[in-house]
Amino acid sequence: MSAPIVRFAPSPTGRIHIGNAxxxxxxxxxxxxxxxxxxxxxxxxxxxxxxxxxxxxxSEDLAWLGIEPDRVEKQSARFADxxxxxxxxxxxxxxxxxxxxxxxxxxxxxxxxxxxxxxIYDRSALxxxxxxxxxxxxxxxxxxxxxxxxxxxxxxxxxxxxEVHWDDVFRGEQTVDLGSMSDPVLxxxxxxxxxxxxxxxDDEAFGITHVIRxxxxxxxxxxxxxxxxxxxxxxxxxxxxxxxxxSEGEGLSKRLGSLSLQSLREDGFEAMAVSSLASLIGTSxxxxxxxxxxxxxxRFDPLKVSKSPARFDVAELExxxxxxxxxxxxxxxxxxVSIPEGxxxxxxxxxxxxxxxxxxxxxxxNDVVAGEITPLIDAEDRDMITAAANSLPAEPWDETSWKxxxxxxxxDTGRKGxxxxxxxxxxxxxxxxxxxxxxxLPLIGRKTVLARLA
Length: 454
Ligand code: GLU
Known about the structure:
By secondary structure, this protein is α/β, with parallel strands linked by helices. The chain is 44% helix and 11% strand. Helix 1 packs across helix 10, helix 1 packs across helix 11 and helix 10 crosses helix 12.
């Protein structure tokens, strides 16, 4: 394949969630796998709902995932181009004004349904005369504009089956019947463009070779290919990946808050845990924690992605996150964590990482090693703890010191197993569970240990 150019095209009307991240990642992984380029396009034609802060936030979310666009574009800066093409379509009679209100259209559809007819737009606006249109405008009505689909022969009301085919990058051969659809609205009553036409103009202008997006766009693709053709553009290849649902099978947008990338990041999840899960669930590859996005890109194959929706489960994300951290070398994390004064960072990280499911939990062990904790000493263990304080070996300490010490305490007190180790752990760390004490002890140091046993 020659180098592809893909685009991720969010509307900056809110932050992106894990399902949008899947689309962004699939575009990115496809581009990287094939030595191509990635365009970030903000679909901000809806001026009232689009906000700059969301565009900035989405760029941050992508950067966090490791996605670095080769080019960033905003549709709001390209209205002159859209206007030119709009005029061209109007002049060709392919874009026509319709004055029906939403209510009128709904009533018409329910009549069609009750007569057993498909509820598609009957093109009655095309039968209106110029006088009728002027009259409607004089009443203050504003038209919306529809694209005339090439699904008729002779008369426009003689709609017939008209198949559009494409070889979907994710799903293989696809067929859509233009004869079963309404002419799509391209311009709203307030004169603003829906995303469809600007998207097509941009795909052409930016040389997009592959449109990769969610399966919710499959039916749109038929009409979009027709518009590409009407404009004399060569349609790009299309790929529609399966959608993610929440763990109950519900659509993700309902849980946008908790599953936004922003909140996952704030909850302390690793970007690569999110990327691994977002790209591997619902595929024939095992869901595993991949530490490097280049690895995800090299194994990426759209044909491995299942055709049915995939369930996203935050519990699975937690498992992947722990796994990533447990395998993470210190140099990867060094500039993100704070290390207790005077302690070797690598030693501290290697001692504690096995007990972390999120990097943010490291603070607790920071306190254990060099801060303030409350030792837990039960009354029945008091004598044993005092005896242990008396047999604490002299420094320097290393990973063998714990064994040497507990062997001595065992001999002095007759305690063994859990009744030996647990009281020591609780006194030294203030907690009943945690990292291996042979690793932790040398980091805490004799002076602090003695103080906690006192
Ligand atoms: N802004 C559109 C959306 O988010 C883009 C769809 C597309 O990728 O063509 O649904």
